[in-house]
Amino acid sequence: MMYDTIDIALLLAKIALVFFVILTLAAYLVFAERKVLAWIQDRKGPNRVGPFGLLQPLADLIKLLTKEDFRPIGADKWLFYLAPAMAAIPAIMIFAVIPFGAPLTLFGHTVLLQVSDLNVGLLLFMALSSIAVYGVALGGWASNSKYALLGSIRGLAQLISYELSMGLSLVPVVMLARSFRLSDIVNAQSGCWFIVYQPLAFVIFLISIAAECKRIPFELPEAEGELVAGFHTEYSGMRFGLFFVGEYINIIVLGGLAATFFLGGWHGPFLPPVVWFSAKVLAFAFLFIWMRGTLPRLRYDQLMHFGWKILTPLALVNIVVTGWWLVLRG
Amino acid sequence: MKILSDIAALLTGMWITWKHMFRRPVTIQYPEEKRQPYPRYRARIVLTRDPDGGERCVACQLCSAACPVDCISMQPTEDTDGRRSAEWFRINFARCIFCGLCAEACPTLAIQMTPDFEICTRDIMDLVYEKEDLLIDGCGKSSHYNFYRHAGIGVTQPRGNGAEELPPVDVRGLLP
User: Fold this and answer.
1) Which of A119, B14, B73, B125 measures 20 to 30 Å from A56, CA to CA?
2) How far is A139 from chain B (nearest CA, A)?
3) What is the ipTM of this complex?
4) Beta-carbon contacts below 8 Å between A and B
């Protein structure tokens, strides 16, 4: 395939756009979370900086950037400095394979609204979401602190427990779409969304991504009631901010994936595709915030029990049933 | 089926938080919107005067003895008529915890709490209130009480002239 200048310029523009939108959205998701939690708790939330507090993310950024960059004595210098990036970068990389709109035609070129239409996009997502846990594990290990270490051990154990069921819950999607390519999965849902065929897989995936982005029923690696702040206890300033932003990017990305796999991606009536995709992603983000305002944290062993003894067998049964159904349908 | 009741419990919780999302916040936006504290709210301490305009404080030191953080100090002095008062009286509000024990200890109802809680300043030394800052012109919460009408024998009135006080008994005249 030949690329001309316009192709490359469009690709770079897409990457820049995705970066800008994701990072801005992540910053505003922090604000949205504080607002929604405040409403749930009958408070008003941040409303001092700018109109309705809308400049709060900017104030937070300035605060984080001007704070002391502290490193504990005995911490492993390189790992300590690298870990936040290792947590944030895989999260944003996953977005490269998510189609966020219908293909456009610009300057006589067809532009996919997707950074890279990889034929193993789903596998890339699985791989990157596993790599992301290195940031948690190494950050906790390098901090030379008992709380951070306990948090990172929990992070690893949690990863093993839910990653399996997450992968298994996506197998029926692949069976239905007959492709690992995310744009094919979206196109396969142009008639009927996969959530109709696969409600169980959707629920399993939803629970697994709540665990993946360390949100409240499964936020064991952080567990502020037990482990101070878990794996990022010793981090301050923008390194903590990077962990934090990485988490919110993860929410956006996983919401986007859940929309892509089960809710038809950018498909939807009346409104433009990009609007539909954004609405679905924001609905997932709202669901996670709402869950955080409601549910208590699971115990360590309860998560293991739930992941291994309930979700994984259910996902396996679901695959077998889907297989039978596909064969019988012919 | 335990799992069904568990799911129902989760959804109940989600429904309750959903309802709270649309409820009016209880927040009071402080500097713009001020709550009127109740009259017995314990904040800035004042020294009151009796209905005749005299200082109620007799510098008995009970308030400073009752104070758990030792923020009250004073120097007692005595007038020519035998009436006691404080030469100087000082409360360090930077230290005060507004517990109200001084007001409870005061036998003359001189030291009282007021609902004025906005006494923050930039300079901590401004929180050390002297007697002229503390003394107010009114009677505070007890508008009729005057200690010297009931007690303080021989100071403001001769013996037996106080309120609810009988004239002194002539012990010799009671002989059988």
Assistant:
1) B14
2) 33
3) 0.76
4) 34
